[in-house]
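Long-time lurker, first post. I've been practising inverse folding by hand and with some scripts of my own, and I keep getting stuck on stretches where the structure tokens seem ambiguous. Below is the full token string for one chain I'm working on. Before anyone asks, I'm not after the true native sequence, just a reasonable design that respects the backbone. If someone could post their per-position residues I'd love to compare against what I wrote down in my notebook.
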């Protein structure tokens, strides 16, 4: 699991997904119920569900055996469980004991993609590139950098292939070293995710335990368009 100094709280809710990437289910209790735009929702004390955000898709999850979609409620800041379109939540009351569960293979895929994105950012920053955009969705994962004037090799196909090969080698070395992935809270409340001493960035996503958990990390030849370097990538979680 990703380690952190303390659990993250939003009011009475514990963001359990931040401290338990590999936690598949939790027994908890309902702390709030409500309705938004005609759709009922429920919030639990120990929230196992990562909502969509930060370039990462939402977890697939269940509450008392009923499939739900986690979203962050704009008014309360709570992560709430809503029913998929055409579905319905079970009848829940505040204080009721419930079991929350996630689809663990989906979670670990998302964690692998998000961690691999940090790794791609890290090897880009080693070249002096500055990240300007990111996406960690399956099939869409990419990191975009601002292209510095000094990168003269990016102007031709052969040069782009050479630079991509250098990025691949740097990423492979970090994975071979199995650098630990750690999360810490700053005094201002921000959560920083570290790839050992290689890289650190503010992040609210889920991550693998160490870079050795990454498998099938592939970086196609980078692209340059309108002054931006796009590094697409794929990754999976190694077999447990």
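-- Answer (accepted) --
I ran through it position by position. Result:
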């Amino acid at each position: 699991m990703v380690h952190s100094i303390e659990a993250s709280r939003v009011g009475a809710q514990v963001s359990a997904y931040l401290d338990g990437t590999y936690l598949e289910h939790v027994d908890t209790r309902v702390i709030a119920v409500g309705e938004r735009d005609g759709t009922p929702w429920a919030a639990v004390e120990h929230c196992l569900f990562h909502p969509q955000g930060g370039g990462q898709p939402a977890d697939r999850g269940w509450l008392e055996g009923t499939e739900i979609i986690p979203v962050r409620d704009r008014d309360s800041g709570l992560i709430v469980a809503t029913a998929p379109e055409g579905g319905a939540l079970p009848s829940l009351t505040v204080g009721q004991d419930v079991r929350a569960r996630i689809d663990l293979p989906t979670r670990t895929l998302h964690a692998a993609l998000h961690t691999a994105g940090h790794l791609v950012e890290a090897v880009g920053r080693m070249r002096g590139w500055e990240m300007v955009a990111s996406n960690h969705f399956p099939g869409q994962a990419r990191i975009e950098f601002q292209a510095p004037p000094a990168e003269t090799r990016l102007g031709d196909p052969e040069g782009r292939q050479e630079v991509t090969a250098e990025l691949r080698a740097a990423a492979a070395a970090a994975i071979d070293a199995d650098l630990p992935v750690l999360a810490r809270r700053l005094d201002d409340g921000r959560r920083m995710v570290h790839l050992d001493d290689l890289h650190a960035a503010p992040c609210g996503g889920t991550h693998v335990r160490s870079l050795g958990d990454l498998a099938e990390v592939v970086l196609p030849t980078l692209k340059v368009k309108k002054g931006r370097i796009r590094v697409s990538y794929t990754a999976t979680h190694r077999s447990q």
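A couple of notes from the structure itself: The longest helix spans residues 104-125. The mean pLDDT is 91. Happy to go over any region you disagree with.
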